[in-house]
């Protein structure tokens, strides 16, 4: 049984549009273009059985909309055993009816979950609540995911891209979500790095339906951020965040993770066992 990378941004050349490339120059990070056969060779060399591609809408950054994950899935239909695709909806740009329509379309296409990126979408994860903004579309997202047994990945921590509003990156806002939707599996992407790692750790530790991923945290610094990592190893996922700034590559990041000074059992749990419980392959 091989490894699983539970968080990448492997956006392939046939999926990225010229408009997305043009817009990327204004956000401080040009979209990296990947080529599928090259990625597959690297996966084989690293014993990566499959990787999770996060393909969420991002109007404020690169202009991608709700069809982005569907186009990504179509581009991978002949290798469904090597990839998993996480989609999403930008709830502040859609009506309730449009939100439900796109969630259904992505589900039928084969997504393995949905992503919410609060700093990029300018929304708090608990903004569905009446004492917050009462965003019904956000409640629809969580309810649909819970009803269809799909996880929701929520970005926590800062983002350096120019349109980002980092006040929305605090993981404490996710606490309402896991309380209000107890059957929903929620993943704290990046574990609140670098500002809120302590809060993220405590929430994962005490909330049974809350998980975390360590993507974007350099493996060599992982235990500096999370010295008690092994206490929550049953609910932690390995991810590289390949495609983002500063990440070396699929194989090199995994190799560094496998050198971290935690037990071999913890490494297997994080980089193989746990992600299989969360994200299914395209073939299901």
TrEMBL record:
Coiled coil: none annotated. It comes from the Archaea. Keywords: Hydrolase, Lyase. One of its GO terms (molecular function) is carboxy-lyase activity. InterPro entries: ACMSD (IPR032465), Amidohydro-rel (IPR006680), Metal_Hydrolase (IPR032466). Gene3D superfamilies: Metal-dependent hydrolases (3.20.20.140). Pfam families: Amidohydro_2. Residues 4-279 form the Amidohydrolase-related domain. This is Amidohydrolase. It comes from Sulfodiicoccus acidiphilus.
